[in-house]
Design goal:
This protein is an alpha/beta fold and 466 residues long. It has twelve helices and 18 strands. The protein has an eleven-stranded mixed sheet. The chain has a four-stranded antiparallel sheet with strand order 1-8-7-6. Strands 3-5-4 form a three-stranded mixed sheet. Strand 12, helix 7 (306-317) and strand 13 form a beta-alpha-beta unit. The radius of gyration is 23 Å and the shape is globular. The structure holds iron/sulfur cluster.
Length: 466
């Protein structure tokens, strides 16, 4: 039984027009998929090298974790396949801070992942347990083997099963998230459902941006709450994230209910708002209510006004939990001076690196937009100069417009490119009940049956049109 990591993505999917398809990291990350490292708090690093030691450790983790999962899913495997010789009384003690926090729910694919993962662990020759005193990773103190699954020391793990593999979104103590595609099968990945969906919930917005390509206005329509709950029920357990957008999603009267509904069903409801609208929302919302947004990504559309970000970060710092922001800039609308401004304001408040998503430039809805506003195409080399200070992400259109692929070594591309729009992601417009590969696609299809929509998605994945 093998385990492969097929791709890595940093941060949440917050773009509501197409996918985050590539990440430029400050320094390249490596994975070593067939070796195991687990984090252990409060004790020295250790290697488990005998089948009994490994089985005992796995058994303890299973027992300490979700009893229901253990009994219903793992009991048979552990007892019948691997652990005939290991008694529960012999299981080692594991410090409470080192117990994996893998909690299942009826919408989560976690029991399936857990079963496959433990089966894989039990087949390893050795397992390294690393130390995380003071929450500082200490992989370097570990002898070989190093590598995956470092995910398990993360504070929270979200799991879905979009096809013949798993998606794991792991959140660390610092609030940072990393998403992995993990496969235990020796076959190509086949997504049956999108990993993430860009969802339009409203056409209301009064910002009137000159570069807007959406059909929005100050009295635009909202989608029905029923349409939203129906979509979420269809994808629960399979799709991991949605990227809610509009219009201004904060204008939807049931926006908070939607966030709550999706979270309760194991889906991470990221959303994107204009940075100006988010300042206003934060000012008018009690801080404790904003905690609802803790485990999701918030995309902030940059307008060039530094004090908006300044105020947002100041308000966010007032809480003792973390809101995870990605700042969106647009090729040809924003330039490197915007990046400078973002960095200047960001580092006034935070020590972690900001995530900046570069979006491709789309033709504005208003044909007579002021062309003299258009800036030069952003240069990848220029962005690289800031890569020690920021994490850059690119949507599929920006990948094309900036020629990102030409600058990246093939192995990095393979691990970090998330796929073209329509391959692992899609767009659903719940206001007009239409879907497409992405929001700016000229070809949109009417939602008649939900099942039909996902059949079409599978065809896109095979490189076919519907
Ligand atoms: S904030 Fe977004 S949706 Fe609203 S007008 Fe500007 S670009 Fe369009």
């Amino acid at each position: 039984m093998c385990m492969r990591i097929e791709s890595i993505r940093i941060g949440y999917e917050t773009n509501s027009s197409s996918s985050h398809s590539f990440v430029l990291l400050p320094e390249p990350r490596k994975t070593d998929t067939d070796r195991a490292v687990m984090k252990y708090y409060g004790w020295g690093p250790e290697l488990l090298t005998t089948p009994e030691e490994i089985a005992g450790y796995v058994l303890t983790q299973a027992l300490e974790n979700d009893k229901e999962i253990f009994q219903t899913v793992l009991g048979d495997i552990l007892y019948n396949e691997f652990l005939k010789e290991v008694k529960i009384e012999d299981a080692p003690e594991i410090d409470h801070a080192s117990i994996w926090e893998l909690k299942g729910s009826k919408y989560s694919a976690l029991p399936n992942f857990y079963r496959d993962f433990l089966k894989w662990l039990l087949k390893q020759k050795e397992i390294g347990i690393a130390v995380d005193n003071d929450n500082e990773p200490e992989y370097d103190t570990l002898p070989e083997p190093k590598g995956f699954p470092q995910v398990l020391y993360r504070r929270k793990v979200f799991v879905s099963e979009p096809g013949n593999y798993y998606l794991l979104l792991c959140k660390g103590w610092d609030g940072e998230v990393t998403r992995y595609r993990v496969s235990f099968k020796d076959e190509p990945l086949k997504p049956e459902y999108p990993e993430s969906i860009d969802v339009k919930i409203t056409e209301m917005c009064d910002n009137n941006c000159w570069y807007c390509f959406e059909n929005v206005s100050h009295n635009g329509r909202h989608c029905s709450f029923e349409a939203f709950t129906r979509l979420v029920s269809e994808i629960a357990g399979k799709t991991l994230e949605i990227a809610i957008g509009g219009g201004n999603p904060l204008k939807h009267p049931q926006f908070m209910d939607m966030i709550r509904y999706a979270k309760e069903r194991g889906i991470i409801p990221n959303f994107t708002v204009n940075i100006r609208d988010w300042v206003e929302f934060m000012r008018n919302t009690p801080l404790e209510k904003l905690k609802l947004f803790e485990d999701l990504g918030i995309g902030l559309s940059w307008t060039g006004v530094g004090w908006h970000l300044d105020e947002i970060l100041a308000l966010t710092q007032a809480s003792n939990w973390i809101l995870n922001y990605t700042i969106h800039i647009i090729n040809r609308v924003h330039g490197t001076e915007d990046i400078e401004r973002i960095l200047e304001v960001w580092y006034k408040h935070r020590k972690d690196k900001p995530k900046i998503l570069v979006l491709g430039f789309k033709k504005p809805r208003e044909k007579n937009f002021p062309r003299f506003f258009l800036k030069e195409v952003l240069k990848f080399e220029d962005l690289q100069k800031y890569s020690g200070k920021a994490i850059f992400l690119f949507d599929d259109l920006a990948v094309e417009q900036l020629g990102v692929k030409d600058y990246v070594p093939p192995e990095t591309w393979k691990l970090f490119y998330q796929g073209a729009d329509g391959e692992y992601t899609m767009f659903v417009d719940l206001v007009n009940m239409k879907y497409a590969k992405n929001s700016y696609s000229g070809r949109k299809y009417k939602i008649t049956k939900w099942g039909e929509m996902f059949k079409h998605f599978r065809r896109w994945g095979k490189g076919k049109e519907v």
